[in-house]
Amino acid sequence: MGDAQAPKNPGKEYTHRDYITILNIGGKRVVFRTIHDHVDVSEVAGQYGSGGHAKASGCSLSKEAFQTFVLDTFHLEPIREDAPQKSL
User: Fold this and answer.
1) Dihedral sign, CA of 51, 55, 60, 65?
2) Partner residues linked to 60 by β-bridges
3) Measuring CA to CA, which of 10, 18, 50, 84 is 20 to 30 A from 39?
């Protein structure tokens, strides 16, 4: 109900986020951050077997987390791997 009554900002489809997700693909980590007192991101991390603090948490980038935060979010075709380099 609150979102339906929130004033619309031109050029901004979403004016509010409960938390952000930061992906470290190389480090195989997912980090969650919030500034809101009513949001506990350790509960989000707990869904993926980890935890942390109420406003700063994280988890490993498991297959389930990768599916949720990468594949289900970014609908992109996989990039073909480069051919291996020949050593000289």
Assistant:
1) positive
2) 29
3) 10
